[in-house]
Design a protein that fits this description.
The chain is α/β, with parallel strands linked by helices. It has nine helices and twelve strands. An eight-stranded mixed β-sheet has the order 7-6-5-8-9-11-10-12, with helices on both faces. Strands 1-2-3-4 form a four-stranded antiparallel β-sheet, covered by helices on one side. α1 runs parallel beside α2. The longest helix has 12 residues. The protein is globular, with a radius of gyration of 18 Å.
Length: 281
Amino acid sequence: MEEPAAVCRPVGGGTAKLLPDVDRRRAWMLTVDGAPQSYVDLDDPLHLEFEYVRRLAHVLDLAGPEGAPLDVLHLGGGGLTLPRYAAHTRPGSRQRVVESDAELSALVAEFLPLPAGAGTAVEAADARAALESSPPASADVVVADVFGGNRVPPQMTTVGCARAAARALRPGGIYAANLADAAPFGFLGSQIATWRAAFTRVCVVAEPAVLRGRRFGNVLLLASDGELPPPLLARRTAADPFPARVVPGAELEALRGGAIPVQEDAAAPSPVPPEGSFGIG
């Protein structure tokens, strides 16, 4: 059988490539300008190659009764890995995906189509604008995986954004954001302060090497007015192939340091990843 060929196409954010995985028959890596964006196995939506996506999946698993449908707003679409996972593990879920790069979404729809009945609507829009226009109390979970050129854009880092997320969530709902930083955690500290200005509970999830300042990496920030972290989250993340820790309470305050909430006029993107981070360079 002929091996699938890589696909290369210009998109709004640069040059997108779909690279076949030689070890999995219908699995693909999506990159934009060399930076990995998504990994999708069309035959197995439960296969999550990226560790931070696995951690987000744990949050979805624990956001409500097992298998019950959820209303999920995804800010940032990429290859739609997490929406595929939620559609499989929580049939009947209603999912809205907001992806600013319409050309990227078209590429994904052509080569990595969602299965029939996925209950997922994909739209081309700005993530912050879509969040602000969401009906109040319309989502059980908001997942923010929004990067422009490998950096979280400034409009997603402010108190105004946090308050918009709080309005969009139902009581007890969870906001889960994929961030990236390294010691001394100036950006992460500002985000902890910002989301605590709008939510009663905040925690972060990251690999110990990142938390100890040994390298740059992904950090999940979770915010809610309900129980946080969800029960069993720490156990699940600790049991992953690349274990992560859940950081609440006093240790979270140490990460925050003296940071203050980010107002609109002080917004800045996340740090530039060092060369070699996330496969770049």
